[in-house]
Amino acid sequence: MLNRRCFLLGSTAALAALPAAGAPLRFAPVIVGGTRTVAGPSAPIEIIDDQFGIPHIRAATIPDAFFGQGYVVARDRLFQIDLAYRRDLGRLAEAFGPKFAKHDGVARLFRYRGDLDAELARQSVEEVDVERLVETMVSIHKDLAQSRKVDVVMEKRSGKQLPVTLGHDSRLAQVFNNLIDNAVSFSPPEGTVRVAVATTDTTITVTVTDEGPGIRGDISRIFQRFYTDRPEGEHFGDHSGLGLAISKQIVEAHKGTIAAENRTDRSGARFTVRLKRAPVERPRR
What is the distance of C-alpha 94 from the center of its chain? Predict the structure, then answer.
């Protein structure tokens, strides 16, 4: 480690003494190739990353070799900074593809640490058409659930009152997304997830019902952070036990309630969200 530190310090000293010659720096790694033109080296420098990620530097002079080493150190450090930034903000999928989407979702849930009531209070409330919001979530999950051979069905609304509440559509969408995603993940092949909306003069009720094994653990703990009813061997990044806890906070911040129960007609679970209905009686567009 001491030798490597001395080498890096020597690289820094050599870089400081180099004139700005403006020669191109040829950068040709195995995975991502390209050419960078920078001020400093006296001749082109070739940098090749092998299959193990180890950089190999080819330069005409020792000072240029030191320059190449400094370039690699800076490049790798910038990559580490960008990786840490994306990991913490839940934005890995932007750079590395959809297989990191689950990780990103968990990272975003971990980021929440504050008072949700205070957070929502800083934002202006708006009229939210709960039925349309739920229909959108059902449409999204209907396509995603096909790979698991699970059908997601939106049932006809019960009640003549408009299903409009006052709140934040993005947060409520997060609730319904979590509930439907959980229901699909617990459903057996050829199973059906049913989503229903019902209204009264004062209340909007949304139920998500599945045909899975039901809640086998302690129902009273189902909305606690990190509590999960899933097998121990299941990958943490898929379902962290945070989604239902955050959903409960969001619903309660909207002055509503959320409850879980097992079905009595067959195996399966049912989650019920109740929200206050806004006194809106105009025709829907």
Answer: 11
Q: Where are the beta strands (DSSP E) in 28-143?
A: 34-37, 45-49, 55-58, 126-129
Long-range contacts of 223-231 (CB under 8 A, 24+ apart): 223/247, 223/248, 223/258, 223/260
Q: Tell me: the pLDDT tens digits for 112-169?
A: 555 666 666 777 789 999 999 999 999 988 888 888 899 999 999 998 899 999 998 8
Q: Are strands 257-262 and 269-276 parallel, antiparallel or unpaired?
A: antiparallel
Same domain, 144 and 263: yes
pTM (2 d.p.): 0.60
- 19/176 Cα distance (integer angstroms): 61
Asked if 161 and 277 count as a contact pair (C-beta separation under 8 A), the reply is yes
Nearest to 59 by CA among 73, 74, 49, 69: 69
Identify residue 157 by its one-letter amino acid code.
R
Select from 69, 204, 217, 57 the least CA-distant residue to 134: 204
Range of the domain at 203: 116-276
Query: Looking at per-residue confidence, does 273 or 222 come out higher?
Result: 273
Report the domain count for the chain: 2
The predicted model gives 42-68 an average pLDDT of 90
Answer yes or no: do 168 and 255 share one domain: yes
Distance CA 241, CA 56 (A): 44
Helix and strand counts by DSSP (H, E) for the chain: 8, 11
Check the CA dihedral 212-213-218-224 and report its sign: negative
Phi, psi (degrees; rounded to nearest 5) at 152: -110, 120
Clarify whether residues 155 and 57 are in a common domain: no
> What sign for the dihedral angle of Cα 152, 192, 234, 257?
positive
Q: Which amino acid is at 246?
A: I
DSSP state of 178: H
